[in-house]
Design goal:
The complex is a heterodimer of chains A (183) and B (77). Chain A is mainly alpha-helical and 183 residues long. Chain A is built from six helices and no strands. Helices cover 68% and strands 0% of the residues of chain A. In chain B, strands 1-6-3-2 form a four-stranded mixed sheet. Chain B has a two-stranded antiparallel sheet with strand order 4-5. Chain B starts with a strand and ends with a strand. The chains are: A mainly alpha (183), B alpha+beta (77).
Chain lengths: 183, 77
């Protein structure tokens, strides 16, 4: 634990135990989403599915990056990850992005993807709201992740016909916002 | 429609096998089926068995997310 790091956040008025619980739950959401997206990506096949595979893969890798970026902050603030992987899965801040019963229905699969991203957008908005002006490092991290989650949501939303996303596919490396937190 | 006081509502806190009920704008919703209300807690900050009308104004989502849950009663003051 980084003692002064935690102390200054507490003194700024943040309930650090609450914040840590949220960070661990969102880390769980990222890692489980990485797992579930792996299955979803494998099932994105055929004329419709193949077109979506590339963004599903970018989102999958970036969600794993988000997990990696969250872990140091959890330990800096005095928290830890649970030793039990099943407990970690079950405490996720978002429901499992499970493969739909009919994996050939690409629209249903897209809805699973977009709902997972929407849950993440809500979660990081909450963390940003809690830490804004009080815990600069967690805020910066949560905001970086939020930028990427918003892009993921917009990609999937566009494919669902909800309107243009205004975003382009990744050019170059993944995680343009979170990269600075990946050591 | 069942009528709940705040004291009645507090019993449905999602713990010890009790269902998880929450109140919003006078209606009582059963959120027990939600992954996000396990053990009567929601995103660390909110507890089942309470009136969350004011809390929802601060939440990063709107009341539309309550639509899928059954209404089990009304909250009386």
């Amino acid at each position: 634990m980084a003692k002064v790091t935690r102390e200054v956040v507490e003194r700024a008025g943040v309930d650090v135990d609450q914040l840590l619980e949220l960070l661990v739950k969102n880390a769980a959401a990222e890692l489980t989403t990485y797992y579930y997206y792996t299955i979803l990506r494998v099932n994105l096949i055929g004329l419709e599915g193949e077109g979506i595979k590339e963004i599903a893969e970018a989102a999958r890798i970036e969600d794993r990056n988000h997990f990696e970026a969250l872990v140091p902050r959890i330990y800096e603030l005095g928290g830890s990850l649970p030793g039990d992987m099943k407990a970690f899965h079950d405490m996720s801040a978002c429901p499992p992005a499970s493969l739909p019963e009919d994996p050939t229905d690409v629209k249903v699969l897209l809805k699973v993807l977009v709902e997972a991203e929407r849950c993440a957008v809500r979660g990081y908005t909450q963390i940003c709201n809690m830490t804004f002006g009080k815990d600069h490092r967690t805020y910066d991290l949560a905001l970086a992740i939020l930028h990427e989650e918003i892009q993921h949501e917009s990609w999937f939303s566009e494919f669902l016909g909800e309107g243009p996303s205004g975003h382009f596919l990744r050019r170059g490396e993944t995680s343009p916002f979170v990269r600075k937190f990946l050591e | 429609m069942r009528r709940f006081t705040l004291e009645d509502l507090a019993r449905y806190n999602g713990k010890g096998g009790m269902p998880a009920y929450i109140a919003y704008k006078g209606q009582v919703y059963d959120v027990s089926s939600s992954f996000l209300w396990q053990n009567g807690r929601h995103q660390v900050l909110h507890e089942a068995g309470t009136d969350l009308t004011a809390a929802l104004d601060q939440a990063p989502h709107g009341e539309d997310l309550l639509k899928g849950f059954p209404v089990v009663g009304v909250l009386i003051r």
